[in-house]
Amino acid sequence: MRAVAQRVKRTTLKVDGVLISEIPFGLVVFLGIKTEDTKAQAEYLAKKIANLRIFEDENGKMNLSVKDVGGEVLLVSQFTLYGDASHGNRPSFTLAEHPERAEPLYEYAVECLRGHGVTVKKGVFGADMQIEQHNDGPVTILLEI
Q: Rounded distance, CA 15 to CA 20, Å?
């Protein structure tokens, strides 16, 4: 499983021009699910994301988590995180899990994050989403298990 976590200010997610999710500030997390990923990996990443200290404290040090600052998480499934472009120019997605298995793991990751006391908004699994985000920093962290 791979996650790209970006610290953001206001972020919106639309599908076909319709607002689906919005967060005032926090993290946008793009989640890639690989073949043979498990619930244990989703649990690990959820805990890591909830406690990742990438928000500034009163001294300007990245020492606070999204929970500490009262932020929200927009969790977006993104199979393209497992795109392999090492051969040629067209990525192969053979490492990405099939949708019928990936979607339940994505939903499980949402519930795990909520279980850590984080407000979680979602994208629409498998949809063509338009995301407008105001990156903060920018701060971008790659997590993989």
A: 7
> Which are the contacts of 127, defined by CB distance < 8 A and separation ≥ 6?
15
CB-based contact 27:74 (threshold 8 Å): yes
Query: DSSP label at 92?
Result: B
Among residues 6, 11, 30, 78, which one is catalytic? 78
Query: Tens of pLDDT along 55-84?
Result: 999 999 999 999 999 999 999 999 999 999
Cut 0.85: pTM above it: yes
Query: Is residue 80 annotated as part of the catalytic site, yes or no?
Result: yes
The verdict on whether 78 is a catalytic residue reads: yes
CATH level 2 (architecture), domain 2-144: 3-Layer(bba) Sandwich (3.50)
pLDDT in tens, 21-48: 999 999 999 999 999 999 999 999 999 9
Residue 35 a catalytic site member: no
Cβ distance 144 to 1 under 8 Å?
Answer: yes
Residues 71, 76, 79: CA angle, nearest 5 degrees: 150
Catalytic option among 35, 38, 80, 140: 80
The domain spans of the chain are 2-144
Three-state secondary structure call for residue 14: strand
